[in-house]
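Q: My labmate handed me this sequence with no annotations at all. I'd like to see what the chain might look like in three dimensions before we decide whether it's worth expressing. Could you predict it?
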Amino acid sequence: MKTITDIKEMLIFIKLNDHQKTTVLRKSKKFFYRVFFAILFCGLGYILVYPLIYIFTTAIKSPSDMLDTTTIWVAKNPAFGNFAAVWNYIEYPAALLNTLMIAGIVTILNLFVCSIVGYGFARFKFKERGILFALVIFTIIVPPQVISLPQYLFFLNFDIFGIFSAILGGTLNFNNSIAPFVLPAAFGQGLKTGLFIYIFRQFYRGMPMELEEAGYIDGCGIVRTYLQIMLPNAVPAFITVGLLSFVWHWSEVFSQAQYMNENPTLSLRLIGVTGLITRSAAMTDLSYVTPLKYAGVALVILPLIVIYLIGQRFFVQSVERSGIVG
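A: Here is what I predict for the chain of 326 residues:
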């Protein structure tokens, strides 16, 4: 049985003309879509934010909170000293310096080299352009693990046409240094370099030719046109490549485990944090070790979160304009 109110609403709807009915249906559909997308975005946002919430809430738990089944999110006995303890275990300042050196120097080199190469592919026509660009795309497909062994042996006994052997009487050993990261980046062969070249190429291809033609008319050469006209207008691409390169080299583990064993980065320290804790504290209880591990994770990702919060607006704009998803 329908209520009297439902019957009245039905009679009012019947009396409406066709235009009014269409308007009501359109507004109802729009309201439904808004509610649907709001629920969808809230669900996706929760999925993305949940790991961060879990990391930081677990990092401040005490052993008693870990054993208490009623403690899920908010710690009843917060132990903020976990951060200070794990700071000492992983030797945070030294590991942070090593990580910043690798991520910072390599990112600067990637920006400089990849922007020039991408500009060349976008604007200059030469016979081998298609083959060379296919090789660039091929570097994106090939996993770095495939060339890890020959590359390790190359840097273990580094030499160029026997020059160093003739001058120094032997080859150079670049293990436990940042050279295996810096040298490939300086010659466009670093981690994800092919993707960065592709991003710059797509961005420069989308810029109007009239900008360069105006520079040539004013007497600018190729180098001056690139530096004074194209480079200032490529800020979105630089932001995109810079952030991606920095984050990837910050959290990369495979290559760092090969070359930085004696000077570990934050990622390497984080891998062995359980052994560092149990060896130093002589404590293997998970209720004690687990919060310290998550405190270490929080310290490692905290600089990246700060960088993202500062440059989030610029990064979103740069991704939209750089053609990274086009």
